[in-house]
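Thread: Newbie trying to understand structure tokens

Hi all, I'm a second-year student working on a class project, and my supervisor (Dr. K.) asked me to get a predicted structure for one chain before our next meeting. I've only ever worked with sequences, so writing a 3D structure as a token string is new to me. If someone could post the tokens and maybe explain what I'm looking at, I'd be very grateful. Here's the chain:
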Amino acid sequence: MKTLKNNFRKVEKLLEKCSTAIISTHRNPDADAIGSELAFYYLLKKKGIDAEIVNFSPLPENLRFLPDSDRIKQQKRIHNKYDIAIILDCESPERNGYVIKKDKIKYPILYIDHHKTNPNDPENNIINPLASSTSEIIYYLVKHLKVDIDEKIATCLFTGIFFDTGGLRYSNASKSTFKVCYELVKKGISVREISKNIFENRRINSQHLLAIALSRLKTTVNKKVCWTYLTVKDFNKTNADNNDTEGFIDRINETEGIDVSIFFKEIAENMTKVSLRSNDKYDVSEVAIHFGGGGHKNASGFIYNESLKNTIKLVLNEICKDA
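---
Reply by user tm_fold:
Sure, no problem. This is what the structure looks like when written as tokens:
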């Protein structure tokens, strides 16, 4: 916590030198990424800093309810110059989609993240693996900077926290997380609206795709690893897109008696996205790192440049060595 406070002070001094800022996050952003971006946008505006949000991927439809979400731009690269760039919930330029160009930024890029596999210097960035979400980190930064948390900021932060903790059901929801949520709810936010939009707003195409994925559920010999997969043909058949698979891995992880759940998603002929979840007995981040990815102990993932069939074989072999 001492290091975190020191980093907050460094960020405070850095922001005092800035008049313009660009905010971005990872490709295919989720509710924590978008929620923390919008909250940080409001924070900067209240500090008198002219800020923009630019992402590689489009805004997910179910997050358009968030205040001022229409301010988020989709661009492959930034074109203007800024004093500072803040990349949230993301560990690398590659994961960001290379939206941020260093030659357009006056000061070093600031990373704020809660993934333990983030390789950036923890002394000059804000990286806290103990936080439930990047939104929770932003909450404490806002408090440190003595910026008033209004209903808009509270809605964005609660959305990010609520999503990344699975509605406060996951093990990453700590005492601190519940305390933060309590403070945010007091700002007059609608928990029901947030919950409905992020957990109960699935397209019929997505439901059809989920049915296919669940119909293919398999377990390993010891019944401790449960997995399924989707192909490009499945997406074409259901007229679904990448955003329609949000939360699929969590449905797989609901299977009784398992330690690890895996969702394989074919992106192209030789490209497969893999999502991993586990209980407290197994650290799936080690598997993700082995294949070039990262994440948390109980929630990680990676994209592998190999066919779906070969990726499934390689990942199951790696996991079944220990699971």
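A couple of things are worth pointing out once you decode it. The first strand starts at residue 20 and ends at 25. The chain has two domains: 2-199, 204-319. Feel free to ask follow-ups in this thread.
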